Amino acid sequence: MPNQLLQSLVDGLLLGSVYGVAAMGLTLIWGVMRVINLTHGPLIVVGMFATYLLFTHLGLNPYLGLVLVAILGLLAGLAVYFIAVQRVINAPYLSSLLSTYAVSMILIGVGTFVFTSSPQNVDYTLGTWGLGALSVPGNRVVGAITAFIVAGLLYLFLNRTRPGKAIRAVANNRAAAELMGIPSNRILALSFGIGAMLAVVAGGVIATFFPFTVLSGSDYQLKSFVIGVLGGLGNPIGALVGGLLLGIVEGVVPMFMPVGWVPVLEFGLFIAALVFFPNGLFGARRR
Amino acid sequence: MSTATQTLPQTAPALGTVGATLRKPSFWVVNGLLLVVGVLPLITGNSTLRESIFTVLISAALAASLNILMGYTGYVNFGNIVFFGLGGYVGFFAMSALGWNLFPSMLLGGLVSGLLAALLGFALLRLRGAYFALATIGVNEAARAFVANFEPFGASTGMHINFGVYSQYGGAASALQLSYILMLIVAIVVACVSFFVKDSRLGLGLFSIREDEDAAIVMGVNAWRYKTIAYVLSAVFPGIIGVIFFFKNGNIEPLDAFPFQRSLEILVMVMLGGNGTVLGPILGAGIYQQMRGFLLTNDLFKNLQLAFAGLALLLIVLFVPSGLVGWIRGRFPVTRRWLE
Question: Chain B: nearest CA to A131, how far in angstroms?
Fold first, then answer.
């Protein structure tokens, strides 16, 4: 039993780090422009299918392919920003919720049309790696390493580069940033692009773990919301920690209850976090 | 929304405004429209027409219910279909397992939906704006997961009604007729309630929350209580409609009862017709169903229906945020007496 518990814990942590990357994208966009990106789920699916197509049709290694997938994600995010978000960025939140939702309906609609809703999978495995008494799938380990590399790069980008600093400035106070000569519209577009890129990359990694369909996005989107809220919306590093937490819950809970109940529990956790910790578990105080 | 103030009642009514509402031309425009369109298939006896108008009435009533929360209060609910599914499940359980009649089952479905909304509202409506919208996405997923695992409701396979049950309503044919008439009545009741709420103190409070929640609270509006009342009102009718729909349908399954896509379609209908107006969601439902019918019969567009709904929503949100009725009201002020 303790061994099994440890095994579930490790599985959960490896998986959770990837969920964390997806949630970082969601939370970055919220933090910078106060927009809840409801195209998040479909963008994750874009990553899954991009990885799938690159692997099956071009034979590209799914982890090397992530670089191409990331560029695609950045472009997709910029497109969504300029088409759907830019016009309503200063309107009440209802507008941006509905406009990103509309884009997600279009993506899912077209996706279902092209790929149908039958399950696909990336048939690529690195075998099972033994670690003492533990045995973990190689895909999960490489996926988790990728997740930490991405998180590290994001951290360096936000803290060490000029555009990254501009993003943080705009997140802090858009009007003041504009007065300092920062082109806020371009910075908002860039943030949205990076947020989308993180979602797409996470999707690409998840595709190497589990089978997926065009409609899988909603599950992962919900997980991202839970994580984002746990870690504090607007806090990318909190999102990674939140992801690890959710991973632990997902890994360990099915040992004690039927797997079908996990979404119900996740949702309960979500509501509890929203109501009791509106600024995340690590948030200092209520705004 | 920039045009939001236009939909506020012209005069500030105190309590007991039912008489004033009944004297408004726009009240009779909406109800007259519903009545004429609704009675048409009963007079002609055209059952194909009846079925298509049944679908429109369901959408119209669901859209008008959502409008009370989304249009009046400015709170998006992405899981409004939960109450349709849950009410349907509870009423269906009462009919198939407990052998209840349709009428008490309808009341039960509405009551349970309202209660659930009150409980959910108790927790969720402490959240503001976008946070609430996020939570409602979770409500839908969780409700489906719950019902799919809940044994008394048949878990993932659902439940069905024994065909013999229909005999107490005079056979299957007249049960269909009965469901239609009930649906028409419910649609009219929802329209009336929408008007009464809009012209009441409650309505004014809701509109002020939509415009500026902090200011409303400062002015003495108990925002949390008002929002919960709006949420409950927008849940009761979908619960009743669910019972009627699944009574007519004869069986119920988790995927039919919580179709997330329907939640979205209803949202599109509200925005299409005019968020915050009474006529808008009803008109939007009619237009959307016509458009959907056209897309479904066209081979090229059949599978792209969701994408088109999304495109319609995007264009409305970006370019005509007040919807059709709101746009007409803004463009031609003469019509404001008649269209609301």
Answer: 35
Interchain contact A259–B (C-beta under 8 A): no
CB-based contact A52:A207 (threshold 8 Å): yes
Which of A99, A107, A222 lies at the smallest CB-CB distance from B318? A99
Identity of the residue in B129, B306, B318 whose CB atom sits nearest the CB atom of A112: B306
- Determine the distance in angstroms separating the CA of A129 from the nearest CA of chain B, rounded to an integer: 34
The predicted structure's pLDDT at residue A134: 80
pTM above 0.90, yes or no: no
> Residue A29's pLDDT is what?
93
Mean pLDDT value across chain A: 88
Q: Test B74 with A92 for CB contact under 8 angstroms.
A: yes
Local confidence band at A75 (pLDDT 50, 70, 90 cut-offs) = very high
Lowest mean pLDDT among A77-86, A248-257, A264-273, B281-290: A264-273
Place of tokens 């329907």: B262
Test mutation, B73, B139, B141, B224, chain A, max A CBs within 10 A = B141
Any CB–CB contact under 8 A between B36 and chain A?
Answer: no
Distance spanning both ends of chain A, measured CA to CA: 43
**Contact (CB, 8 A) for A171 and A31:** yes
Per-residue pLDDT at B1? 41
Q: Among B76, B124, B318, whose Cβ lies nearest the Cβ of A94?
A: B76
Place of tokens 């009803």: B282
**Stretches in chain B below the pLDDT threshold 50:** 1-15
B307 contact A CB<8A: yes
List Cβ neighbours of B148 (8 Å cut-off, separation of 6 or more): A260, B155, B156, B254
Task: Kindly list the distances between the CA atom of residue A179 and the CA atoms of A16, A33, A189, B24, in Å, as whole numbers in the listed order.
Answer: 40, 17, 18, 51
Whether the Cβ atoms of residue B206 and residue B72 lie closer than 8 Å to each other: yes
Contact A261 B149 (CB under 8 A): yes
CA distance A67 to A141: 18
Contact of B88 with B242, CB cutoff 8 Å: yes
* pLDDT score of B5: 45
Q: What is the pLDDT of residue B127?
A: 81
* Structure-block tokens of residue A127: 């075998």
Task: Give the angle subtended at the CA of A13 by the CAs of A265 and A259, to the nearest 5°.
Answer: 35
- Scanning B205-264 for CB atoms below 8 A from A yields 260, 264
Q: What is the CA radius of gyration of chain A?
A: 19
Among all chains, which residue has been given the structure tokens 């008489």?
Answer: B19
Q: Are B91 and B108 in contact (CB under 8 A)?
A: yes
Interface test with B, best of A264, A265, A266, A287 (most B CBs within 10 A): A264
CB burial readout A203-231, b (16+ within 10 A) else e: bbbbbbbeebbbbbbbbbbbbbbbbbbbb
For residue A121, what are its two tokens? 């999978």
More confident residue, A259 or B275: B275
Which tens digits make up the pLDDT trace of B242-288?
999 999 888 888 877 777 778 878 988 998 898 899 999 999 999 98
Contact B124 A98 (CB under 8 A): no
- Give the ipTM: 0.86
| Dihedral sign, Cα of residue B182, residue B183, residue B186, residue B188 | negative
Query: What residue type is A166 in one-letter code?
Result: A
User: Does pLDDT of A221 surpass 50?
Assistant: yes
CB distance from A257 to chain B under 8 Å? Answer: no
